[in-house]
Design brief:
- With 147 residues, the chain is α/β, with parallel strands linked by helices.
- It has five helices and seven strands; from the N terminus they run βαβαβαβββαβα.
- It has a seven-stranded parallel beta sheet with strand order 3-4-2-5-6-1-7, sandwiched between helices.
- The radius of gyration is 14 Å and the shape is globular.
Length: 147
């Protein structure tokens, strides 16, 4: 069963996601899919390019050429796309408002929720979705860990 981490109260979803992805790839050697709305993925893409040369993480979009998708440790996939068709299965990072289709095929899902009221409300419905299906959710309150 997919391990679900729910990271909430993050003041900056993009930078938090980049730090999380960098750690997963560099320290743990994981292959990661990041799913979200196009605007959010554009911001993540730009932020990943801004990392220092020693911290750079290779990444591509899910609609890139097949050989790039297969070799990239990080794939950015638009919300609603079929992540089940991607070669990665280790970690899925959700930055979007929807429950990612096919999340149950991944070993781990990290769902990131900002500290904004609307995002928190939408996040609560995803939490209920996972809980109603019997998933154990590991909460991580960014506000508590930052203080």
């Amino acid at each position: 069963m997919t391990e679900i981490g729910f990271h909430f109260n993050t003041p900056d979803k993009v930078n938090y996601a980049c730090r999380l992805v960098r750690k997963a790839v560099s320290a743990r050697g994981l292959r990661v899919v990041v799913v979200g709305e196009t605007q959010m993925l554009d911001a993540v893409d730009a932020a990943l390019w801004q990392l220092s040369p020693s911290d750079f993480i290779a990444h591509c979009r899910s609609n890139a050429e097949a050989h790039m998708v297969a070799r990239s440790p990080v794939i950015l996939s638009a919300e609603g796309a079929d992540v089940a068709s991607l070669p990665h299965r280790e970690m899925l990072v959700n930055l979007g408002p929807e429950v990612p289709a096919g999340f149950e095929r991944f070993e781990r899902l990290i769902d990131i929720v900002s500290d904004e009221a609307e995002d928190r409300q939408i996040g609560r419905s995803r939490w209920r979705h996972y809980a109603d299906r019997g998933y154990t959710i590991q909460p991580h309150d960014f506000a508590r860990s930052a203080s």
